[in-house]
Amino acid sequence: MALLLGGCTALNTTQPVHPASITISQLDQLANYASGLRGRSAAELADDGEALARAYAQQRSEENRLRLAVFLALAPPPAGDRSRALGLLDVPPGETWGRGRNHPLAILLLPPLQEHRRMEESLNVTQSRLREEQKRSEGLQQKLDAIRDIEKKMLERSPPDKTR
Fold first, then answer.
1. What is residue 60's predicted lDDT score, i.e. its pLDDT?
2. 98: Cβ–Cβ under 8 A, 6 or more apart, which residues?
3. Grouped pLDDT means (10 residues each) for the chain, 164 residues
4. pTM metric for this prediction
5. CA angle (45 as vertex; 44, 50 as ends), nearest 5
6. Listed residue (69, 26, 27, 29) closest to 49, CA to CA
7. Can you tell me the distance from the alpha carbon of 24 to that of 27, in angstroms, rounded to the nearest whole number?
8. Cβ distance 103 to 70 under 8 Å?
């Protein structure tokens, strides 16, 4: 009996790892990585971006996807690309993507990235309208200048008034 109980206690010493602790560990690693991006030079950021993209292309794991998405979301331009980060984070959950948009990091980063995209689209529309209005204004200015030239020529041609 003592031998059987001893065997049971040996089995209980290996406790299963709680999934939340793995997630927190991954989040900690990604947060530490993200905080290290701030002091890097443009060349270092470009090298990091290429290495992360290469790693993701070779192995499309959730960890590589998230690491690349964090880099693209937080690195300053030209290394960072918020639209591409949004595309990497906003994927449906599944076997190949892991938890996809349900990953805690994706849940954290998706709203500001989506808002950034909406603001960029709004800015693009506003800039387009501004360019159209500037073209319209230039056209109207040219017409006004042409009318002034015609008026000036008419005044030069008109004979002086003869008073009787």
1. 85
2. 61, 62, 65
3. 41 44 65 79 88 90 87 85 88 74 83 92 96 97 96 83 59
4. 0.63
5. 100
6. 69
7. 5
8. no
List the one residue out of 28, 100, 22, 107 whose CA is nearest residue 61.
100
Measured between alpha carbons, how far is 104 from 40 in angstroms, rounded to an integer? 26
3-state SS string for the chain: CHHHHHHHHHHHCCCCCCHHHHHHHHHHHHHHHHHCCCCCCHHHHHHHHHHHHHHHHHCCCHHHHHHHHHHHHHCCCCCCCHHHHHHHHCCCCECCCECHHHCHHHHHHHHHHHHHHHHHHHHHHHHHHHHHHHHHHHHHHHHHHHHHHHHHHHHHHCCCCCCC
Question: Do 111 and 85 touch, CB atoms closer than 8 A?
Answer: no
